[in-house]
Structure formats: structure tokens, C-alpha cells
Amino acid sequence: MAAELTTHELIARHRPTLDQALEAIRTRAYWSPHPEHPKAYGENGSLDAGAGKAAFDAVLGTRLDLGQPGTDDWVGGEVSPYGVELGVTYPHADIDVLLPAMKAGQGAWRDAGAETRAVVCLEILKRISDRTHEFAHAVMHTSGQAFMMAFQAGGPHAQDRGLEAVAYAYVEQVRTPDTAEWTKPQGKRDPLVLTKHFTPVPRGIALLIGCNTFPTWNGYPGLFASLATGNAVLVKPHPRAVLPLALTVQAAREVLAEAGFDPNLVALAAERPDEGIAKTLATRPEIRIIDYTGSTSFGDWLEANARQAQVYTEKAGVNTVIVDSTADYKGMLSNLAFSLSLYSGQMCTTPQNLLIPRDGIATDQGHKSFDEVTADLARSVDALLGDDARANALLGAIVNPDVKARLEAAAALGEVALASREVANPDFPDAVVRTPVIVKLDGAKPDAEAAYMSECFGPVSFAVAVDSAAGAVELLRRTVREKGAMTVGAYTTDEEVERAVQEVCLDEAAQLSLNLTGGVYVNQTAAFSDFHGSGGNPAANAALCDGAFVANRFRVVEVRREA
Amino acid sequence: MAAELTTHELIARHRPTLDQALEAIRTRAYWSPHPEHPKAYGENGSLDAGAGKAAFDAVLGTRLDLGQPGTDDWVGGEVSPYGVELGVTYPHADIDVLLPAMKAGQGAWRDAGAETRAVVCLEILKRISDRTHEFAHAVMHTSGQAFMMAFQAGGPHAQDRGLEAVAYAYVEQVRTPDTAEWTKPQGKRDPLVLTKHFTPVPRGIALLIGCNTFPTWNGYPGLFASLATGNAVLVKPHPRAVLPLALTVQAAREVLAEAGFDPNLVALAAERPDEGIAKTLATRPEIRIIDYTGSTSFGDWLEANARQAQVYTEKAGVNTVIVDSTADYKGMLSNLAFSLSLYSGQMCTTPQNLLIPRDGIATDQGHKSFDEVTADLARSVDALLGDDARANALLGAIVNPDVKARLEAAAALGEVALASREVANPDFPDAVVRTPVIVKLDGAKPDAEAAYMSECFGPVSFAVAVDSAAGAVELLRRTVREKGAMTVGAYTTDEEVERAVQEVCLDEAAQLSLNLTGGVYVNQTAAFSDFHGSGGNPAANAALCDGAFVANRFRVVEVRREA
């Protein structure tokens, strides 16, 4: 078919961005081509705030026809954590029709080569970027994130992670040259001479199993890594967060078709309530790669059962912050208060266990007892969230009833240092908005261990009294080893303690933030620079993004012949 | 401890070689620092033929004490396929003592960094290279390879594959810088500034499960990839091929100690007859990486059961050569005859199924019927192996009774185009030396399929009559998809057929050699240039060597703090 977008055009448009991304993953300095500020949108084809909102409103209550083959029904039923029924329906696929259709265009996609695939992916990301305002509403009304967070984390930050994956995928594929001349001397006889051709080939169809809380941010790395390495990608969104990924699939299909490729290289697999198609899809022989973010139990199931596929999982963990000592008590408290509050603690990177010596800590404001530290932290959270408007803007809404139930049960686990309170949302009266709870536990008591050694996903954290800094370090080691962690934080002015914490993190492969007191938080990572997870502890078997995340999504086939 | 070998010295000695290896894996042009000719050894500290033989003889009948902790017994019992009892005993380990001892030195090995680890590995390879003549005898008398093959494949070629793995491991680890300054603009406010440190960390202890036929060639990639990425490596050799890997462990321990590292970073796990310790070791929590070459059943078992580890397997496959047409009939026949004969077909890369149209093929010597092709090939093998001295030098010995039994049973599977014959070995009268058998099968007959669709490891190949080139291509596709293949060969002068074969190899991820008629054979691959296996079909889940082979043997831990 005649392409509206030629490869030449796409390379001219996107190669400079790709090159900058390649440079960024080498230096890991700050870089992003995707503006974080809502007002940066509205020119050069991007939707401004009003147009984005209008686009979102226009899709509500409609059938989102993606033009996919094998559609046998229309399904939907998302209800926003803010109380709005989205009313959008999506294609439900007969997978025996859809999967073969997805394979049909793979040969041409493979033959296009790594650079063309990369720039097609960058064009998809550009279309998504242009619709950032629209996506922000879609992410907000599926994840429950407050608008600004949905805008940034669901928009530019997610797009950054997608672009980062494309850059890693590209560089990995071009490590091996397309051709080589191989001449082996044979003493006095003629040398042996071979011509060799090397082609990166896809594994097959990749399956992306999306999550409820960060459908785009957690979805884009796998989606773009698989697509850029030549695989078709089937997107199975979380039933409560279909729209952001459906719009993504829409943009991808649009660009693929315009660039002369088969749009079925990217398709959506929405499901009926309680259909549970992830298990069926994950074990289909056509599915050779799976990316998953969600519960440990299903992640473990995938790793054990989807044996025909490469499986990349991000599961649960127990994130720890050691509070040993600080030279900036106020900065520490406000930094921690923000980390605990952002998106009501519904991030896989939110700290859960704050390990604090029961004898208290040294600070620039003198010695602070365990109770003083917890009380001061509670006050910091209160101060941060005292204003309802600001509280709503930071907390967002509770994403589902399970989180609410866990929050309500948490108060019974120990002495409450900070009680959760309801916050009214004037714009969305049905939204469930809650401030975080902080519960004090005694680390020496066996019955407390059941609480702090399990992930309690949501706005719940435990101030755990430990005997000493050394005890904190040992508990950190055991927690990461047994439960995994996406993040570790530590506050200490003691070089010995700092060294011990680092040693644990190196031994147990956990990502460490030290003494953050300013505007960077332990639960945030930046694409091109920070790794999200390590892939080396039970919380996740892969990191975003590194060579290992992309290198096994394709294989290299060599064809050699005598020259 | 004071190191006899300083890092500085090792870098000066080996960095140029490392750089050349890095360049070779980028260009994939011919390169090797390890001479193939036996006469190249004897200077600069390397053993010449006589000294190598003497060193081998000196170890026979001795206890090879590696100085390992936790040795609770001495075990051995290797009998050479050439009939010689080696009489060497090796340490048997109490793994509850050995494994913790192997972990003790990991912190220092990790902290040494990627470059130091690489040059230490290169020093180990240098010591092994110096002992190539000694290793040649050890490989010969465990694998049954003829001396020259044991010398080359077990010596320089194996060392090349080890070095290649070190190069890949090094480059993978230095993709991320040691440190980064990250400065994020904040409009009119001060920028956010972080200092980030990145450290490659090992997964834990790696387990190498060695094979009988190529203990060093198949063992070195995993061993050196794991060691170079910071892991300790436990080497569990095949009970019939302990010596080459025991000598390897000896060399590694020597160099590690001299360089100031804990020698227990590399250790041997020899076993009692029928002890079957591989299963026990493979599922120990300390074991986080496994490299395995051997049967499909145990490879599948490892993949299914060693869930705590990254598992790299090379298993069985069914290698196919399509014989469609040729412009060099004589060259094709002699090339194929050599491929079928080398090491009595006991290579994972030896062709098994020769797919030949039942109506014959076009050649530069006119049309040849199916029967003519098979008869001419039989004659070529006969001519190649007619002289007993040359036959012994090419065939080596049958490695074990199972191979002999399969060979003897093969003649009953169909019409014999070339019968196997016994060859006497004047030097080793007890050696079992056999020429290959070629059996004709009708690809259209369902009862023939059971034979040609299973791996028949050893000097057995099937001339399978197919209806057409298209039929051959389809059978190739089915064979690779269902049974896997380490190699595919094809002879054709028809562009359409060539394209179709290539398409199958790209679709099913198989490595293809086209129209080889000279001194390169389908069953041989060269390090730094050819991939061994693809990792994308059932014969192996990894390729030697690529980014995917090394990228997940370590993780990167980030420590970030405000600048």
C-alpha cells in the first residue's frame, strides 16, 4: 500500500530526537522532549487544555471502533474513581481471528529494519504527545490520579519511558552490523571468505497486561520495546483502565497504517466483566513476550505458566525508608510527607515502612525521640494536606474499594500516629478521597511483623521502632530479600550507616535514594536517568529500562555464504 | 591480601586484547588472539606439544586438589572414549560449606568494577591458552574428539568463545556510566540537582552444568559471562568430562588469588557416580544463574524448576540441509561429507536431515536423481574416510554407548545408502571408531517421520525424499518450529527457493549457511562473528554470544542523592 508517511520523512522528523535519547541513556543526564507544563501544549498540532478536554468528552459514551479484525462484541463499563461512568465500549476480540491477523504484517515490519521501526514508534509517541491533554483526562478518570499528576505521569513521563524503551531497543538491534565480510587466513592457501547478513527478528506477538494505576506509564516501556524490536503487540488493559491504552492503540494503528504497515501490528483485547482473558492470552503459543504490572500472585502465575514467553513482571514489594539521622529535619519531614501523600500512596514506589530507632534520632534541631519524629511527620502531612483544594490536587481519588478497605483496616494494626481523614472533592462528590494513615509498630514484636512485612498498597505507612541503625539495616536487608522493594530511602548523617545501607542495596539489588529533602521524591524516577526497579529482587524481574529489558525481545538470524 | 598481580599490570597486559575483541564483536570480521596451530605454542610461557602431553600425563592417576573449602570426599572415574582410565580424583563438596564460601569474596569482586573483572578473566584465559596442549589431551580423552579437533575446538576456539563472552559482559556493564549529574530545570526556581552512582551488581552464584562432548567450548561462554559480571561460578562438569573443566577451575582460582581476589569465586562440584547433584544444585536459592548444554529433557526440567535462576540452555535439535540444486556438485558433496563425518557427527550442529526432492536436483554436472545424489554423497564420505589414519583423525571416538546403540539401530530405519564401518585405531585399540551411516527415508511416509523428526545424536543422517523444493521448505519450517535447530543449510541456485529458505529461517529464528562448498562447514561457527544457535527456536533459549546472553547476569543499582 502507498504510505502517506515515507520512511525518509519519518527519519528526517525523528532521527534527531532518537539521537538525543541515545545520548541521554548513555550519560543519564536530565533530558526530555515532552513538556511537563500543560500550557506548553496547543501549538504545532498539539491539543491545548480546552481541545484536550473536548476530545475526552467526545469519546465518552461512544463505541471506540479501532477497525480491528475478529471483533465479535463490544464491551466496556469503566467507572471513574471520581464517580463518572465513562460509557465507552471497546472491541472484544475473537482471538482465533485477531492473533493470525496480527501476524500477517510482521514480515514487512521485520524487514523494515530497526531504524524505521524506531521512527515509526517515535511518530506514534508524537501523536500521543499531541493528545496529552486528552490522555490526562483518560488517565485521571481510570487511575484516580489528580489531574496534574495524570497529566504529567500519564503524559510526558509515560511518553519519556516509551521513548527510552525505543532508544534501548534501537541501540540493541544495531550492535550487530547488517553485513560482515569474514576473511580467515589459511597460511599459504587462499583465505576462507564468507559474506554474512544479520537480521534482528521478532519473537512473535507480545502481550501487554496493563495496570489500573499507571496504564500508560507502566504500559509504554513494554509496548514500545516489543514493537520497536519487530513484534506485534496485543494490549490487554486492566478492565478499570481501558481508555488510556485504547487511545494508545488507536494512535499506533493510525500511524502504522499511514506509514504503510499493517495496523494490526498493534491491537486491543478488551474483556467482559470477570472474563479473565489474561490467563488465556498469556498461554497462547503465539504470545512470546509478556509485560505485566500488578499483583505478585498473578505475576508469579505468569512466570510459572507462560513458559512459551519471555515474561517481564513488576509485582508488589515492601518499600522501606530508614530514618537514622538528618542534617535537615524540616526538609526530611516535608519530603517524606509529600512521598506518603502523592496519589494517596497508590504508587508501587511509595514508602511503606519507616524504620526509626526507638531511642530517637539526631537532627539539626537536636535529638528527636521516636514519638517526636512520628508526631512531627504527622504534622507535616497535615500541613501539606490541610487545605482541601491542595489535598485533592495531591491525593487524587482512591482507585478501588480494596484500597479503601485496607486503609480502614490499617488503623487497627497499631497505635495511630496520623489518622486518615476524608476529603470532599467539590467537582466530583462521589470521589473517595482520603489522607494517609501512619501507624506505629514495634519492630521487636512478632505480631507487628505480619503487618510491616506485607505490602499494604495504598495510603498506609508504618513507623516501625527498631533497636538501632544496625537493626534497621538488617530489617531492610530481610525485607528486600524476602518481599522485594521498588525503592529504598535512607536519611543519615553517619557515614557508617550510609555505607551499611548502600551495601544492603548493592547486595539485594534495590534502588536507593539518600537524604532527599528537596523537590525530588523517593517514589519518582525520571526516564533516561533513573532505573525503575532493579529486576534483581522479588518486586520485579525487570528494570525500566536497561539492556536486559530489550535484548531478548528479538533474536538475530545470520545468513552466511561464500563470498 | 597483597596481590601479586596488580590491576594496573593486568590492564596494561590485556586491555589491548579486550579492545580488539570489542571491535570484533562490532564488525564481526575475522579475529582471534588464540593460535589454531599446535606449533604456535611453546614460547612466551606456553607449553609446547611435549610439555603439554607431559603435563597431561602427570595429572593422570592423581588427586587434583583445588584447595576448595568444604571438600568431604574425593571422586572420579573418568574413562576416555579411547579406552584409557584417567584415574584423576576431584574434590567432592559439602555444598552447605562451599556455597557460603563462594559468596564471601563477592563484595570485593563486585567492587572491583567491570574493567578489572574483564582483565582478570583475560588473564585466566591466557593461562588456559598457555596450557592448550595439555587441555587438548584432556578434551580428547573425555569427549572422544580426535586430537586435532580437541586441540582447536577445545583450545583456541573455546578460549575465543570465553573471550567473546567477556567482551559482551564488559560492554554491557559500561553502557551505564559510573556516575551522572542530573539537573532538571524548574523555570524561575533553582533546578533540581542530583548526583547518581550506578553499580553493576551480580545476581549471586552461577552454576555451569558442563557437557560431555564440548566441555570447554560449550562451558566457557557461560562461565566467563557470569564471572565477568561479578558472579561467583560453580562448575558442575559432566561426570565423563571433568578434567578439562577442573583444569579450568584450577587456572581461574590461581589467577583470582594472585590478583588479590578470593579464589573461591570459582569452584568445582564433582560428583559421585549416579549422584545427580545437578538437580540439587540447580534449585538451591544461592544459585541465580544456570548455563546448561545437554538433553532437552533436563534442559526443560531446569527451565521449569530452577525458577530462582536465569537459565540459559542449549538442548537438542534437528538440523536440516535442503539440497535443491547446486552449481558445484562436487564441492557440495565434499563439504557435506566432511560435515557428516567430523567428530562422528557428535556435534549439536551436525546436519541430520538432508531434504532432497524425489525427482532429483539440477547440478553443474546435469540432473541427478535422488538415488544418485545419495550414492554420490556416500561415495564422498567413503573417499574422505577411506584411509584409516585420516578417518581416525576426523572421526574421533564414539563418546558413549548410547551413541553406539543409536548408530547400530539406525540401519533398520530405512534403506541404507551408506553403511557405517568400524575403523581400527592403532594407538587406542579400545576406542570405538565408526564412520557415519546415511539412511534413505521417504518424507511422505508417516512411519518415516518418527525417525527424521527426532534428534538422533551421533553419526546418523537421513536422506529424506521430498516432493519438491516447496515441500522441503515446509518440512524445514515444521522441523525448526517443533524440534528446533542449531543449524540449517541449503544448496540452491534458485533465487525463489533461496528466498523461501531465508524466510523460514527468519520466521523461525534459525541460523542459515547457504551453498557452502569450500572449507567452511555448516557445523562450525567462529566466535566474534557467527552466532551459535539463535535462542529463538526450541534447540536453545540463548545464542552464543549476544547482549541477551549477558545483560541479565547482573543488575544495576543506583544510589542517588542531592548534589
CATH class of the largest domain in chain A: Alpha Beta
Which sheet architecture does the biggest sheet of chain A show? 7 strands, mixed
What topology, given as strand order, has the largest sheet of chain A? 14-15-16-11-10-17-18
CATH superfamily of the largest domain in chain A: Aldehyde Dehydrogenase, Chain A, domain 1
Shape of chain A: globular
Q: So, CATH architecture of the largest domain in chain A? A: 3-Layer(aba) Sandwich
Helix proportion range of chain A: 40-55%
Count structural domains of chain A. Answer: 2
As residue ranges, the low-confidence spans of chain A are: none
Number of strands of chain A: 19
Give an account of the 3D structure:
Two copies of one chain form a homodimer. Chain A has 563 residues and is α/β, with parallel strands linked by helices. Chain A folds into two domains: 7-22 and 42-314 and 543-562, 3-Layer(aba) Sandwich (Aldehyde Dehydrogenase, Chain A, domain 1); 320-514, Aldehyde Dehydrogenase, Chain A, domain 2 (3-Layer(aba) Sandwich). Chain A is built from 19 helices and 19 strands. In chain A, the strands form five sheets. Chain A has a seven-stranded mixed sheet. In chain A, strands 7-6-5-8-9 form a five-stranded parallel sheet, with helices on both faces. The first copy, chain A, has a three-stranded antiparallel sheet with strand order 3-4-19, covered by helices on one side. Chain A starts with 6 loop residues before the first helix and ends with a strand. The mean pLDDT of chain A is 97. Strand 19 of chain A pairs parallel with strand 18 of chain B. Chains A, B: Residues 93-535 form the Aldehyde dehydrogenase domain. Chains A, B: InterPro entries: Ald_DH/histidinol_DH (IPR016161), Ald_DH_C (IPR016163), Ald_DH_N (IPR016162), Aldehyde_DH_dom (IPR015590), PaaN_2 (IPR011975), Proline_metab_enzyme (IPR050485).
